[in-house]
């Protein structure tokens, strides 16, 4: 059931150094336009952070200042790996998840949700290079572009966040509002090449991109194994 329009909704998204800004800015296009809502940009402090390519982003709200959100957006990018043992970030995700209607991860933001303990027994997706990491956090990996499992909504790599954000809007305010926003955004994907997924990309393109991602993928696998080993310890 959608939420009555007279109920004000609080939405917010985390930013962090070396994130992939499109994981945040893509969904922001739709989420920031949800009727009768406010959207907060969240980080530990209000100093500028740079994304993977150097774009600067600025938080308007610190974790300490943040109210309980209805929707928490957790983006990804290479910088996610540096936060996998950052208890300030993980505890914020956990505490918000406890009261949120939805937690919405994009790309490897799903791994941050995993490190916060939110993926156990949940179906989830992430960037295709990191799908094999998900089971280390107790998740059931899916190659779907967007996966909904209860409170958790996960979108695959980068641009999948736009699809996911429109689904979130439909859950909050209904399909009509989501379609109106899609039209406003002129979101009508017609890619010039059919290489947007491992299933459709030419073999040599897949091999090249996989090789480029090998180092970060190996680090993510290593971090996931540490988490899995910790969960196996008595008392965990």
Automatic annotation (TrEMBL):
As recorded in UniProt, its EC number(s) are 4.2.1.-
- Does the record carry Lyase as a key word? yes
Q: Can the keyword Lyase be found in this entry's annotation?
A: yes
Q: Which UniProt keywords apply?
A: Lyase
Annotated protein name in UniProt: DJ-1/PfpI family protein
Source organism of this protein record: Paraburkholderia unamae
What does the record give as the organism's lineage?
Answer: Bacteria, Pseudomonadati, Pseudomonadota, Betaproteobacteria, Burkholderiales
